[in-house]
Amino acid sequence: MLHLARWLVRHLNDPALIIWLAQPALRARLDVVRDRSHNIGYGVGEDMDALLAEHEGDD
What angle in degrees, to the nearest 10, is found between the helix axes of 44-54 and 2-11? Predict the structure, then answer.
């Protein structure tokens, strides 16, 4: 999951990704990943929270 967080950080400025992230099914899966990533440690859950919160209104 840490790789997913790093990938999101690198690609969040891509308009195609923003549109992709706006899809309800994907957002639901990312919410599950975000919830589970809090158990990983190393700040992964907090990073996922911040990344997804930044783009919450981008749909």
Answer: 30
Which of 54, 56, 59 has the alpha carbon at shortest distance from 9?
Answer: 54
Long-range contacts, stretch 14-19, CB < 8 angstroms, 24+ apart:
18/55, 18/58
8 Å CB contact between 38 and 45: yes
- Of 49, 50, 59, 53, the C-alpha closest to 21 is 59
Q: Decide: helix, strand or coil at residue 47.
A: helix
Structure pTM?
0.49
Query: Is residue 34 scored above 80 in pLDDT?
Result: yes
How high is the pLDDT of residue 39? Answer: 84
CA torsion sign for 47, 27, 12, 54 is negative
